[in-house]
Design brief:
The complex is a heterotrimer of chains A (about 375), B (about 450) and C (about 90).
Chain A (H helix, E strand, L loop, with lengths): L1 E2 L2 E4 L3 H12 L4 E4 L8 H4 L3 E2 L9 H11 L2 H5 L10 E5 L2 H16 L5 E3 L1 H7 L9 E5 L3 E2 L2 H14 L3 E3 L4 E6 L4 E5 L2 E5 L1 E4 L5 H7 L7 E3 L1 E8 L7 E4 L5 E4 L4 E8 L1 E2 L6 E2 L2 H14 L7 E6 L3 E3 L6 E4 L6 E5 L5 H17 L23
Parallel strand pairs in A: 1-12, 2-3, 2-13, 3-9, 5-16, 13-24
Antiparallel strand pairs in A: 4-8, 5-7, 6-7, 10-11, 11-12, 14-22, 15-18, 15-21, 16-17, 17-18, 19-20, 23-24
Helix pairs in contact in A: 1-7, 1-10, 3-10
Chain B lengths: L2 E4 L3 H12 L5 E3 L21 H5 L3 H15 L3 E3 L2 E7 L4 E6 L3 E6 L2 E4 L3 E3 L12 E3 H11 L1 E2 L4 E6 L1 H13 L5 E4 L3 H8 L6 H16 L4 E2 L3 E7 L3 E7 L5 E5 L2 E6 L1 E3 L2 H5 L4 E4 L4 E4 L12 E3 L8 H19 L6 H24 L4 H5 L6 E3 L4 E2 H9 L5 H8 L12 H12 L18 E2 L5
Parallel strand pairs in B: 1-2, 1-7, 2-3, 7-21, 9-17, 11-12, 11-17, 12-13
Antiparallel strand pairs in B: 4-5, 5-6, 8-18, 14-15, 15-16, 19-20, 22-23
Helix pairs in contact in B: 1-3, 1-9, 4-5, 5-7, 6-10, 9-10, 12-13, 12-14
Chain C lengths: L3 E2 L7 E6 L2 E6 L4 H7 L6 E2 L6 E2 L12 E4 L3 E4 L10 E3 L2
Parallel strand pairs in C: 2-8
Antiparallel strand pairs in C: 2-3, 4-5, 6-7, 6-8
Chain lengths: ~375, ~450, ~90
């Protein structure tokens, strides 16, 4: 039996960041990951460090996380290729442009300063865009990072700070005796008064285990990368509507996504889907015609969890004391992962966080709250 | 019943032959403009060399295979110049790219994957220089294009292909500067005995060796290749002989090859599990003796299903087709199946001896210098890979995630084997323990622009 | 690298261009053969600063000989036959 103050289930960005922040405050934390850390949504996503376009309810969390991103190298002791290269969201119609303006006004209330770029300026600054692009909005402090490196870097730092990070530890049983959790993983027993549910899509099953079922669905982002091309594109790109996201890394490869992959019923295997890939490829060429001659050299997907209202589940359980949920990030959890871990550590250690979490309350799905 | 055969080498030809015999007319997809495989590859139509000149001792085999190929092409849905770049095993669909541009989908009830093999290489300093090729590449240049990679190439590696290529070059008028074999004579002699299962082939190997000696080609055993020298092209090879003495051999090209590895990307994407074959020192897709994979509807034959050579490919192609027919409750020649099973057993024993006699020098790979590029697509050095190991990458895919080894256009085809050796040594574990690079679609690059 | 024409070279000649310069070839040559026998030395330049590349496997596996054929897109030099008048651009 391994005793700890906090058990974390799930070694994605949120779980690893929670382990790090807790270990830094002297907490005995054990993280249980059934594969390798960062093997699912955190590791296979696009790598966008993006606040732009988020629902206002999510902006305080994204703001907090962005502050951590600015010192991620110092925090983790590793270079995870974070580049605040800006996020440029493109409008392909007058309605799109109006949508950009609407969001920019909301963002201003949260202290963000996105900048509209009109038709002429965007032509001038980005001559490689086609005519379908009529305007854009630039969030200069947004950017990108290498998704393959985030969770391993956080986990290494957490381990160095004293956290016990257990990879290849699949949880088989989960119990709570009224005051402490008892978890079986990889044939070993772990116990602690706190349990952090950071298990991504599988977080839904953990919540259900404690009487809080939620309508979570699988989300398999369909990702592609081209061969290295001459470097021309600094900003990470998005479009209003979200059916294309695209960036170029300094080595030259264009990483882009759009549509969904697929999986078998048990999610043992996930696969990118060619039809989704074709759609993303077509849309990429429509925006940047010079990509016509580029070759796609790899594609991939992985598994995230998606909620019907597009908000994650983040905060205290309504049924079980000591249980905190942090899952279902709907494809937007890479940027927020470091911040979510910090918030979880504050909830454990301080009993509160400055970040408003009301919109993310699990009670919105469960009868226990009396809400819908 | 919709049957697809992927590949028109010896395995694919013999598979299609059995299917057609049973009245099943498959869709037959070949990446090249024509079939024939590697050993019996056909040059483009403009070339006029005879079978004897092209294929030497394999001329009879080539004639038989080409005759079968030509008669079968006319009777099936023949699709040359077509790459199968993805498979969806649940939906039973193949994604194809024809002439590098036109996308299509081909559905199947059963598919036989006969996807062949490629050279296994040992990265050396300078191996990305123009003038360095694979041994198979040097041979293909001569066979299918009538050109040599140089006038005085050095050939480095091990196995019968090393001698065969050297002799073919000598006969074509080139003068190989040296043939450097990394295997010592003792290993070859110790395991050579196992090749008595197939005396004609054994004698052929010995004959090659003798012919090269007669032609005055310099051959060295138990060699340690050190570096390929040159600025914008290969100008010399540095190597160490069995007595640890260093040599510099001037040359204008160098060919590298240490046996073959399966081109098993489609089997991988189909979800076929892989096992490490200690004898071959390769990861091979799992199949039963008849070629059935554990994935429903997916059959495997030829070198893509584990290196067996051309005899095993022909036998295995036919056998897989018979297994497919039997599984589909269609007329299947049981007597022939039994006969093929027996011959395959014998051939595999011979092949095992051959692999042991000419091993991949994993020890040399594992000790390559930090500055040597393991991954030539992304130019990732052994030192960067070792740094990934130090950053807690316990297996090859995590090392790829950290270092970008195997992330380039070839998707680890070339660097997979040596990278595993480097990583295993860095982690102080056995090579199979670091696993293998998982395949990702597309099998080969596809253009963003789609047609068709 | 310079590939050497050794045998079976009695084939009709043709001309194509590489980077705008006329290059002689023979019918049945692949782009790789034509470019390397004509003394062009390499068919592409590595994106990562380690110089020219001239293919490696000659059989469509190593993906190290991609060139642009104007009007057709990106093609592997080792598996694409040369044609009269085609325009190849090295990347």
């Amino acid at each position: 039996m391994t005793r700890a103050d906090v058990l974390v289930i799930g070694g994605g960005g949120a779980g690893c960041s929670a382990a790090l922040h807790l270990a830094q405050r002297g907490v005995r934390v054990v993280l249980l990951e059934r594969g390798l850390v960062g093997g699912q949504a955190t590791g296979v996503n696009y790598g966008g460090v993006r606040q732009q376009g988020r629902h206002p309810a999510g902006l305080p969390l994204a703001r907090k996380s962005r502050e951590i991103w600015s010192r991620i190298t110092e925090l983790t002791g590793s270079d995870i290729e974070f580049d605040p290269c800006g996020h440029l969201k493109l409008a392909r119609s007058a309605e799109d442009e109006a949508e950009l303006l609407r969001w920019n006004a909301l963002a201003a209330e949260h202290g963000l300063r996105p900048r509209m770029i009109g038709r002429n300026a965007i032509r001038e600054q980005h001559p490689y865009f086609s005519d379908v692009v009529i305007a854009g909005s630039l969030m200069e402090e947004d950017g990108s990072a290498n998704p393959r490196l985030l969770a391993p870097a956080l986990a290494r730092a957490a381990r160095a700070a004293g956290a016990d990070i257990r990879e290849h530890h699949a949880v088989t049983t989960l119990d709570h005796d009224g005051s402490a959790f008892e978890v079986m993983a990889n044939g070993q027993r772990f116990t602690a008064p706190w349990l952090l549910n950071c298990a991504g899509f599988w977080g839904g099953a953990i919540a259900a285990r404690f009487g809080e079922p939620v309508p979570i669905e699988k989300l398999h982002p369909n990702m592609l990368v081209t061969e290295p091309l001459p470097y021309f594109l600094r900003e990470s790109l998005g479009v209003v509507g979200g059916d294309l996201y695209l960036r170029q890394i300094p080595r030259g490869n264009i990483i882009f996504g759009g549509g969904r992959g697929e999986s078998d019923a048990e999610i043992r295997v996930t696969r990118p889907r060619p039809d989704a890939a074709f759609g993303a490829m077509q849309r990429a060429i429509a925006v940047i015609p010079r990509l016509r001659d580029a070759m796609v050299i790899r594609s991939w997907t992985g598994t995230d969890g998606e909620m019907p209202d597009h908000f994650p589940v983040l905060g205290a359980s309504r049924t079980t004391p000591g249980l905190l949920h942090a899952f279902g990030f709907c494809g937007e959890g890479f940027q927020t992962g470091p911040g979510v871990g910090a918030v979880l550590s504050e909830l454990v250690m301080d009993g509160a966080t400055e970040v408003p979490l009301d919109a993310f309350d699990i009670g919105r799905f469960t009868a226990a709250s009396g809400a819908v | 019943m919709k049957v697809v055969v992927v590949g028109a080498g010896p395995a694919g030809i013999r598979a299609v032959e059995q299917l057609v015999r049973a009245g099943v007319f498959p869709t037959w997809i070949e990446e090249g403009p024509d079939g024939g495989g590697r050993i019996t590859q056909r040059p483009p139509a403009e070339f006029s060399r005879s079978h004897a000149a092209l294929y030497g001792a394999d001329a009879g085999r080539a004639k038989r295979l080409h005759a079968a190929l030509d008669s079968l092409k006319a009777r099936v849905d023949w699709r040359p110049d077509t790459l199968v770049w993805n498979i969806r095993p649940d939906a039973r669909v193949l994604h194809t790219l024809t002439n590098g541009a036109a996308q299509d989908e081909v559905s199947y009830d059963a598919v036989i994957l006969c996807t062949g093999a490629m050279d296994r290489v040992l990265p050396l300093p300078g191996w990305t220089l123009p003038g360095a090729t694979t041994l198979g590449g040097a041979q293909t240049a001569l066979k299918s294009q009538g050109v040599g990679i140089g006038a005085n190439p050095v050939l480095i590696g091990t196995g019968p292909l090393l001698w065969l290529t050297a002799l073919q070059y000598a006969k074509a008028g080139a003068k190989p500067a040296a043939v450097l074999d990394t295997t010592d004579l003792l290993t070859k002699a110790r395991f050579g005995g196992g090749m008595l299962w197939n005396i004609p082939t054994l004698l052929r190997g010995m004959g090659l060796y003798a012919s090269l000696k007669l032609r005055g080609v310099k051959m060295y055993e138990d060699v340690t290749p050190l570096a390929i020298e040159g600025v914008d092209k290969v100008t010399a090879v540095h190597w160490r002989d069995a007595a640890w003495k260093e040599h510099v051999t001037p040359c204008d090209a160098v060919a590298l090859g240490w046996g073959l590895k399966p081109e098993a990307q489609l089997a991988d994407l189909a979800g076929v599990p892989f096992d490490y074959d200690d004898t071959q020192q390769n990861w091979v897709p799992r199949k039963d003796a008849a070629g059935r994979s554990p994935v429903a509807g997916v059959y495997l034959a030829g070198d893509g299903a584990g290196i067996g050579g051309v005899d095993v490919a022909e036998l295995g192609g036919a056998r897989a087709a018979l297994a497919l027919l039997a599984d589909a409750k269609l007329p299947s020649d049981m007597a022939l199946s039994k006969h093929l099973d027996g011959r395959l057993r014998t051939e595999r024993r011979f092949r095992a001896a051959l692999e042991r006699a000419f091993p991949y020098p994993a020890r040399l790979a594992s000790r390559m210098e930090d500055s040597t590029s393991v991954c030539r697509c992304e130019v990732i050095t052994a030192g960067e890979l070792r740094a990934a190991a130090a950053a807690e990458a316990p297996e090859l895919n995590r090392a790829k995630a950290f270092s970008r080894v195997g992330m380039g256009r070839c998707q680890g085809r070339l660097c997979g084997t040596p990278a595993a050796a480097v990583l295993a040594r860095a982690l102080a574990v056995e090579v199979p323990e670091v696993g293998r690079l998982r395949g990702q679609p597309p099998v080969k690059p596809v253009p963003l622009q789609q047609v068709g | 690298m310079t590939a050497i024409r050794l045998v079976d070279q009695d084939r009709p000649a043709l001309i194509f261009t590489v980077d705008g310069v006329e290059v002689p070839a023979k019918q049945g040559d692949t782009l790789l053969t034509a470019m390397l026998t004509a003394g062009l030395g390499h068919v592409r330049t590595s994106e990562f600063g380690d110089g020219g590349r001239a293919g490696f496997c000659w059989m469509g596996a190593c993906q190290d000989c991609w060139v642009v054929v104007v009007g057709k897109g990106v093609r592997r030099a080792c598996t694409t036959l040369v044609e009269t008048g085609i325009e190849v651009i090295r990347r």
